[in-house]
Structures are given as C-alpha cells and as structure tokens.
Write a structure and sequence with these properties.
Radius of gyration: 29 Å
Number of strands: 0
Largest sheet: none
Strand content: under 5%
Helix content: 55-70%
Number of domains: 2
Shape: elongated
Distance between the termini: 97 Å
Number of helices: 9
Structural class: mainly alpha
Order of helices and strands: HHHHHHHHH
Length: 218
C-alpha cells in the first residue's frame, strides 16, 4: 500500500508538467488540422464574388466592373456553377450593356444554359430556348468571334432534339400508338438536320435568363 501511495505521489508532479489540452487545439498546424481549415476556407472564386459585391456597393459604375462581371461569368461556367454564371450575365446585360461586348455576354449566357441542359436533360423546355436564343444570336451578331462555337452548340442541340424525338416515336410504336409516333417522326423532317434551316421555335413567355429576350439586342 505504501509503495502505491509513493508511486502516485511521484506521478502527480509529472502530470502537472504535461500541457493542459486547449479547446482551441484544432488551431495547431498538424496535418489533420490543416486539412480541416482547407475544407472550411473560402475558395478563390468565392472571394472574387465577395470582392464583386463589395465593389458594387461602393460604386456600381466602377470602371473595372463590366469586365470583372464577364470574367466572373466565365469562371463560374468553368466551375460548372451555371446559375451563378447566368446571374453575372444578367447583371452585365442590365447594367453594363453600353460598354460593348454584348455578343460575349449573350454567348456566355447561352453557353451556361446549354451546359446546364446537358447535365439535366430532363429540362426539355431548355432545349427550345437554347435554339431560340442561339438563332437570335446568329441573326444579330453574324460576325461575332463566337459564331463557330455557337454553331457547335446549335448542332449538338439539334442532334439531341432529333434523337429524343426518335426515341419517343419508337416508344409509341412499341405500345401500338402509331399516330403519336407519326407526330414525333414529323418533327424530324430532313430539313431539320441542317441547322441553318431549322425554324426558330415559338417564343417562350419567360427566358431562363430573364433578360435574354429580343429587346436585349435593341
């Protein structure tokens, strides 16, 4: 018993020498804590978003904001954040259209719409809008440097539409509904294979990009 007490008496000073564990120990530079901070820290793009907001609050007509707005739209497309990309396109077309580069703003809006559609093809209404906005762009900015990229988007959209109509027609044929099948086959008349001959789909009441209506070009 005495030996046990002696051991405990010797142990107490040693325990007192150990550093007390802080509630802020996660702030130490250990590998685990570093990874934790990387997860909770803001991305460079988020910081740029905050800078944009701050600049707009201070002076919404700051000379660098028009280009900054388009740059952020482009960066959010690259980050696959299409809704935010469309937001910056809307801001540009609403507030900075007098600075030029309307074709770039429109193209970025169309590109974000198309890429958004490709990751969620269930949104069939987007397809008609992509074709409508694309043809408006084609007619308004025939000499734009983005025409070739626009043609790619229109061709891919047309093929998606064509294949979808074929699949639906095949389904109706399978369940013995020839009239419905014929309706979808009719949508794929040979002239639709050529993008330049595709009629512009009826105008939708409201664009997913809101400002991407014909009056934006005026």
């Amino acid at each position: 018993m005495k030996s046990v007490l002696k051991f405990l008496l010797l142990l107490i000073p040693l325990m007192a020498m150990q550093p007390i564990k802080s509630n802020l120990d996660i702030l130490n530079d250990t590998p685990h804590e570093k990874s934790y901070h990387q997860e909770v820290s803001k991305t460079a793009l988020e910081l740029e978003d905050e800078k944009f907001i701050s600049m707009r609050r201070q002076n919404s007509h700051h000379k660098s904001l028009p280009q900054f707005t388009l740059d952020l739209a482009q960066k959010h497309i690259e980050a696959q954040e299409y809704i935010l990309a469309q937001y910056y396109v809307k801001v540009y077309l609403r507030d900075y259209r007098s600075y030029g580069q309307l074709d770039k703003a429109w193209f970025l809006g169309l590109q974000s719409l198309f890429l958004k559609f490709k990751v969620s093809e269930s949104q069939e209404s987007l397809l008609d809008e992509i074709l409508r906005v694309g043809h408006n762009f084609q007619n308004t900015f025939p000499k734009s440097t983005y025409i070739k990229e626009l043609d790619t988007i229109l061709n891919q959209s047309t093929m998606i539409e064509y294949n979808r109509n074929e699949e639906i027609a095949a389904y109706y044929e399978k369940i013995a509904k020839p009239k419905a099948a014929a309706l979808y086959r009719a949508k794929n008349n040979p002239y639709r294979a050529t993008v330049s001959k595709i009629p512009i789909p009826p105008k939708v009441k409201k664009s997913n990009l809101d400002v991407l209506n014909e009056d934006t070009f005026e």
